[in-house]
Amino acid sequence: RLSCIRNNIWLASCGVLSSGLAVLSSFGLMLFCGVPFVVTVANAPFLILGVGVDDMFIMIASWEQSSRKKEKSSVKSLLAETYAEAALSVTITTLTDVLAFFIGTWTAFPSVRSFCLYTGTALVFCYVYTMTFFGAVLVLNHKREQGNRHWLTCMRVGVGEDQAENSCLYNACCIGSCSRQPSQPEGEHPMSIFFKKYYGPFVTNKWIKPLMLLLYGAYLGGSIYGCTQIREGIDLRNLANDDSYVIPYYDDDEKYFSTYGPRVMVIITESVDYWNETVRLGIESCVQNLE
């Protein structure tokens, strides 16, 4: 927003901070409990950031809708209305995500188990901080707007000043708007208008419903077919860059040596006297017998 009063930069920053607090809390708890930290866990903060920012947008959208419905309501009723609208969807999405990651802890791979433990715990903390910390930030931001205070300095701006004699930069930073008009509460967001007036009636049309069912059936059939084609394993060529020397190496290895089967290795698990000729002859005899 261009208005220095309605600008919500700090609100968005606190939403990202909420995700960061969740990552710190979960990582600290897991490390305190002795859960090993593996390299794959370093990707977890990006997942938590995505979920946390999504929850933040849901909370802000619900708050905006509640404030438009009840412009003169108290902060308590606005926050209650916001939680009534947003908390349900945030709770359901968090539960499904946490369940998915905690199911992943049943795997036999220790690295995957650690990743799922760290990420699932971080999602729990992300939910707690969204419902507590970010809700408090919403109230503080609302009080700042009601007090007609600047988004950065929190100083009261002079909306009643004569803006004609001042520069546009001064009006934007110290009065609230460059348009020589007092900052007013904004109307409904254009995206909300699009979904309510156009997209909603379109998908509920009686001719569109059968088409949606057909599209979903095709999607479901393709998904089931794709699941039947999944094979266990990994192609190491996909882990390298396209111009890496590893690519032609694996191509030649598959072309010329794939018919020989897997490599067989002989491992001696105890200390032996390799300088002793008798020991060396015994090792060579063992290899010949295996061949």
Structural class: mainly alpha
Count the DSSP helices. 9
Percentage of helical residues?
55-70%
Assess the beta-strand content as a share of residues. under 5%
Biggest pleated-sheet summary: none
| Low-confidence runs | 179-183
Number of domains: 3
Tell me the total number of β-strands: 0
Q: Termini distance?
A: 76 Å
CA radius of gyration is 30 Å
The average pLDDT is: 85
Order of helices and strands: HHHHHHHHH
Q: Describe the global form.
A: elongated
GO cellular component, one term: membrane
Family: Belongs to the patched family.
Main location: membrane
Membrane topology: Multi-pass membrane protein
Q: Layout of SSEs?
A:
Layout: H1 9-32, H2 44-69, H3 75-103, H4 110-146, H5 168-175, H6 190-203, H7 208-228, H8 246-257, H9 277-290
Helix pairs in contact: 1-2, 1-4, 2-3, 2-4, 3-4
